[in-house]
Predict the 3D structure of the following.
Amino acid sequence: MPTESDCIGDRARRRGRNSSGEATRIKLITVAETMFADRGIAAVSLNEIRLAAGQSNAAAVNYHFGSKNDLIKAILEYRLERIDRERGRLLDDALSARRPAELRGLLEALVLPQIDSINRGERHVELVAQLMFHGYAEPGGHAWILADPTMTEHGQRLNQILWQHLSKLPEVVAAARLRFVYTSCLNAVADHQRQRATAAGAPPTAVFASDLIDSLAAIIRAPASTHTVDAAKR
């Protein structure tokens, strides 16, 4: 049976998504995403977000989201649906074209949805990287959605297949290697977005993305040294 808090959450979601409030809700999400990415989460108040979004109602952010943490979750969920849908399409293409799927095609399904997000001008990847690497997130929480694809439907499929490419490694090494691939991908894409916004010498995004995929493939293919294997046995 749903708890009282579940019912309250459902009412809040319905309230935020009615026909008159949806445009306001999305405006608040996109403005907050940019402000958090530019200045940092701690430095931005809900009132500043409200004013930047052109909302005169002092309770607008609380009305639609409830708190800063709930607003952050809403941003992540809003962007994630499209990213995971694109990931699923790329993964389907990789699996239908060749059996077994080539590693590069699998990694395109990991990388390219994030690249497409920054090409659309979204600041989602930067925000998630900030959450991940600056102490705002607990492992397994909402901020891990991009860094840990296993938290999404198509990410789970991708993870299972990538795991097969690491099957010759000790299990503890394979798990660490795959986690490194995910977090390195997220951080690299976020850094590239910042670099191309601020530095004249940023590589073209197509070159960056292709080289990132090459680099992640090399991480997965690299054998474990005898030192690592011995350490894993201890």
Summary: Residues 62 and 70 are 9 Å apart (CA to CA). Confidence is low (pLDDT under 50) at residues 1-9.
